């Protein structure tokens, strides 16, 4: 296997499927199968889940809500998604643990780095909910942070686009895809991979990022086995 321990970042929106908000159980079940195919190969997998399908702090703030209050709602939304994902994974007979950055002990373990690593070593999928536990951050930042903390080999950003393009491929038909790109070039060309805080944290810690289409069956396993899928951002 190309990678031994990976961190998969899934946005909340990815869980919506074709809906306008909330969670699509069909999509969750499909993701669970994708994840299972990787776990069965003995790869250690941690997941950071977003919350954008339920609530975003910035959206609340734009309508006059206190930003911190909104961010707390957003972080709780990620815990809701984490519980849904955990349930879907368990339905697929995958052992899981949900750890939350915000203490919510009746529903999830608190985030304890050593415990998370131990779960991974035992073959359990660890879902990290609650983002970083701090307002003004995103779950992309949480994904990079947790990946560094657990010594993941790579961070996989599962999206609905199959990589990083010269321009937005959904708007510009001329856009072409990169197979590889450096952190520096992403910044120079003004491309959008993650928010700046998350991206520079990854760069500073020499943690490669692979952006790939999570909705294409078999893709996750291909990425993990080192097949040329998506775009890899490296030093
Ligand atoms: N959030 C936060 N701190 C974090 C992570 C998330 O305050 O460390 C809040 C923030 O309001 C954010 C929301 O949770 O808008 C949902 O996360 P995000 O927007 O990253 O979800 P995604 O876009 O991946 O679905």
UniProtKB/TrEMBL annotation:
Which GO molecular-function terms appear in the entry? ATP binding; UMP kinase activity
What is the top EC class of this enzyme, as a single word? transferase
Q: Supply the alphabetized keyword list.
A: ATP-binding, Cytoplasm, Kinase, Nucleotide-binding, Pyrimidine biosynthesis, Transferase
Q: Which Pfam families match?
A: AA_kinase
Q: How is its activity regulated?
A: Inhibited by UTP.
Aspartate/glutamate/uridylate kinase domain boundaries:
4-213
Question: A GO term (biological process) for this protein?
Answer: UDP biosynthetic process
Q: Which InterPro entries match?
A: AceGlu_kinase-like_sf, Asp/Glu/Uridylate_kinase, Uridylate_kinase, Uridylate_kinase_bac
Annotated ATP binding lies at: 9-12, 52, 56, 159, 165, 168
What are its E.C. numbers?
2.7.4.22
- One GO CC term of this entry? cytoplasm
**Any idea which positions bind UMP?**
51, 71, 132-139
Pathway entry: Pyrimidine metabolism; CTP biosynthesis via de novo pathway; UDP from UMP (UMPK route): step 1/1
The reaction(s) annotated as catalysed by this protein in its Swiss-Prot or TrEMBL entry are: UMP + ATP = UDP + ADP
Question: Main localisation, per the record?
Answer: cytoplasm
> From which domain of life does this come?
Bacteria
Tell me where in or outside the cell this protein is found.
Cytoplasm
Q: Where are the transmembrane segments?
A: none
Keyword hit for ATP-binding: yes
- Tell me its family: Belongs to the UMP kinase family.
Question: What does this protein's UniProt record list under function?
Answer: Catalyzes the reversible phosphorylation of UMP to UDP.
Q: How does it assemble?
A: Homohexamer.
The protein here is known as Uridylate kinase
Its ancestry begins with: Bacteria, Pseudomonadati, Bacteroidota, Flavobacteriia, Flavobacteriales
């Amino acid at each position: 296997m190309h990678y031994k321990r990976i961190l998969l970042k899934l946005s909340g929106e990815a869980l919506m499927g074709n809906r306008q908000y909330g969670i699509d159980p069909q999509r969750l079940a499909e993701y669970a199968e994708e994840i299972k195919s990787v776990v069965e190969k003995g790869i250690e997998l941690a997941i950071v889940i977003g919350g954008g399908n339920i609530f975003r702090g910035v959206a609340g703030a734009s309508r006059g809500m206190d930003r911190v209050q909104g961010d707390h709602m957003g972080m709780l939304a990620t815990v809701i998604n984490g519980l849904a994902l955990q349930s879907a994974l368990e339905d697929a007979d995958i052992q899981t643990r949900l750890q939350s950055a915000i203490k919510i002990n009746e529903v999830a373990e608190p985030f304890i780095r050593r415990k998370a690593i131990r779960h991974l070593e035992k073959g359990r999928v660890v879902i990290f909910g609650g983002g970083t536990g701090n307002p003004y951050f995103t779950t992309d930042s949480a994904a990079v942070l947790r990946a560094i903390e657990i010594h993941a080999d790579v961070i996989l950003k599962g999206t609905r686009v199959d990589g990083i393009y010269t321009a937005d491929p959904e708007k510009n038909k001329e856009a072409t895809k990169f197979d590889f790109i450096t952190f520096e070039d992403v910044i120079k060309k003004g491309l959008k991979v993650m928010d700046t805080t998350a991206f520079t944290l990854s760069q500073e810690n020499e943690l490669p990022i692979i952006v790939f289409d999570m909705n294409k069956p078999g893709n996750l396993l291909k990425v993990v086995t080192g097949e040329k899928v998506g775009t890899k951002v490296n030093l």
